[in-house]
Write a structure and sequence with these properties.
The protein is mainly α. About 70% of the residues lie in helices and about 5% in strands. It has helices at about 5-20, 30-35, 40-50, 65-90, 95-105, 110-125; strands spanning about 55, 65. It is elongated and about 55 Å long. The mean pLDDT is about 95.
Length: about 130
């Protein structure tokens, strides 16, 4: 059974994953800068993610995804990238496609997302 993760938490986990691919270590200030949030807001979110076992933090303030957090982040990022590319392939401007994908990635059920992916891959191969 899948644990409910709210949209905000998914966005934070996705951001941590993206930053971890670009930076040697991820800190709250990096997340705040990337997302355009205050560091205090990020600190509260990190506390919540830590309590849910989605991240771990070191005494030095480095933030790491747990296996569960990584699985969620990878799912959200995969949806984001697929939906952005799919919308862009239909002529939606890249920036609009990315913004819309960010909204859609959170609200689509697994069934709807899988159906969209299936149809998109059929059209791509024909």
């Amino acid at each position: 059974m899948r644990t409910f993760v709210n949209e905000s938490s998914e966005d934070y986990l996705e951001t941590i994953l993206i930053l971890s691919k670009k930076l040697p270590v991820v800190r709250a200030v990096d997340i705040a800068n990337e997302m355009g949030f205050k560091k205090s807001s990020v600190s509260v979110a990190m506390k919540n993610l830590r309590e849910r076992n989605h991240i771990t933090t070191t005494d030095a303030g480095f933030i790491y995804l747990t296996d569960e957090g990584l699985a969620i982040a990878e799912r959200v990022l995969e949806r984001h990238e697929f939906l952005t590319n799919w919308l862009a392939s239909m002529g939606v401007p890249q920036d609009v496609a990315a913004d819309d994908a960010c909204k859609l990635e959170h609200v689509l059920s697994h069934e709807s997302y899988d159906a969209i992916k299936k149809i998109a891959s059929k059209h791509a191969s024909s």
